Amino acid sequence: MLDQDLVRRASGGDQEAFTRLAAATVDRLYAIAHRILRDPDRAQDATQQALFGAWRDLPTLRDQDRFEAWLYRLLVHACYAEARAHRRHIARIRVLSIDPPTAPDTAISVADRDELEHAFRTLTPEQRAVVVLHHYLGFPLTEIAATLGIPAGTARSRLHYATRQLRAALEAGSRLPGLSKERPA
Amino acid sequence: MNSRPSFDDLLSDWLEDGPADAPSPILETVAAAIPSIPQRRVLVRVPWRFPIMNTYAKLAVAAVAVIAVGAIGLAILRPGASQVGGPAPSPSPSPGPSSPAAPSPIAIPPLSEVFTSPIHGYSVGYPAGWRARAATEPWRALSVVPYDAPYADVLGPDPQSAEYLTIASVALAQGTTVEAWIEEYLAFARFKPCGTPLATEPVTIDGVVGVLDVHCAADHYEAVVVSRGRGYVINLTQIPADLKWFRQILATVRLHPENAVDAAPSVAPSASP
Question: Within the 90-149 window of chain A, which residues sit less than 8 Å (CB to CB) from chain B?
Fold first, then answer.
């Protein structure tokens, strides 16, 4: 939980307070951006853009209790911009992230991981964001909708189609015979 | 017993893999940069909706909404109906009624209402059901036009929506060229959350050529135009933003710089050139 006093002081122009807020949130922001963008450099750029935007626009934030959700929103928008900028250049420069997975989980085979990675990259940035907010941060759909400023139905739809696409990618490889039912969102 | 994990578990586990800590240059860069990035200042917070609304007023609003929805539904379902809400306030490009619409991320509502700015000297079409919050003071200095600025006209469906128009205008200082003013305004974009515009292209608004630029990839379009010594900024924030619809909105804009109100004589010379 972020210190609301820091948010209030940063909103009033206190740079030290904002730096402390940034320090408290930067790991989480980067982790989210990395999972959406699947690229460390672009995740770094998106995180910086989100924090620059947060500093600049913080005085306009009407409900300071929602600072963290607002920050996520800025970050996701920055990820959209990064993803789309990347898409324009990818035809000329094919850059594939080769980050090794950290601490592989024995529950996921290497093949499953590769299938998920490949399928995830085919999702739109909007779908990726919803998947990450739901499956990584554990946000319910209502909170995703509020965070991103989209109707709950849109969040549900994006998650549904993204999940279906990811499942199909795994099933196509016959790696998941008899997948169990999804958890209700 | 060999039980397969569920797909959701696999997905969550896969997402767990990956970095948990940010590279240190991020924080160092942010700390070094913020002293040179000015914060937006909010002078007056104007509530989006009227804070007090009695029960009768709420019922009346609800009744009007129900009637409006019913009327729109009838208009859509009626055989031969070509356009909902009567004629648009001005000619605007629209798909033929019988041809399938081009793929669009949202349903495009007809721009059946007209908002005339009491301060900024223009009118614009907007959808039925949206509300307009007129600016309460002139735009005194060139800056960004945030949602809650008292100098911004704001039009949108409701306070929680991520979809809204913000519009403002300002008289160009004497000696400022059109190109210089547009360039100066766009330079502020680097301070916006999405940074420098990703793309710009010419756009014609009420017969005047301006600039259309894109900020946050697909969720923020902005048009900038100068008419008879007055600069106009028109923003559409929408997730995802629909460029086709934004162009339709721009086609309804009528610029009347002679009707604009400028309180500060030092900023706005009295007569248009």
Answer: 99, 101-105, 107-108, 112-113, 116-117, 126, 131-132, 135-136, 148-149
